[in-house]
Amino acid sequence: MSQQPLPPMTEELLTPPTPTCFRFPDEATGMDAIKAAGFAVMDENGIVRLITASHTHALDVVGTISRGGEWDEDGNVITPPKVIEGWHVNYRGEVPDEWLKYAVWPKGPARVWA
Questions:
Q1: How far apart are CA 113 and CA 88, in angstroms?
Q2: Using the 8-state DSSP alphabet, how is residue 108 labeled?
């Protein structure tokens, strides 16, 4: 049995975007960047709602990251956790140019895509 040649492709296959991590200096700067990129809308009650997923992007707001710390059984802090500088966002999709200056490549990310 001879193999038939495959038909020519009629559409381009895209490589999935690489997960990208961003560290904004603070929440206000991060939220301004998210809004400017069009990933937020205001609902009928005036509350800003994030558009966390679409056919072109996925947005995961991590926020403030802390590592370590120790608490007693009553929840009292024995050793405070270390707060990592900045306000953090994971993003997949075409990266808005304005975000590039906030891109980071952590060796041990606090949260990763499943």
A1: 14
A2: S
CA–CA distance, 96 with 58 (Å, rounded to integer): 13
- The span from the CA of 62 to the CA of 7, in Å, is 45
What gap in Å lies between CA 112 and CA 69, rounded to an integer? 21
pTM: 0.76
* Tokens found for residue 65: 């990251």
Distance CA 78, CA 80 (A): 6
Q: What is the pLDDT of residues 83-104, one digit of tens each?
A: 999 999 999 999 999 999 999 9
Compute the distance between CA of residue 103 and CA of residue 94 in angstroms, rounded to an integer: 13
Tokens 């193999």, located at residue: 3
CB atoms within 10 A of CB 49: 10
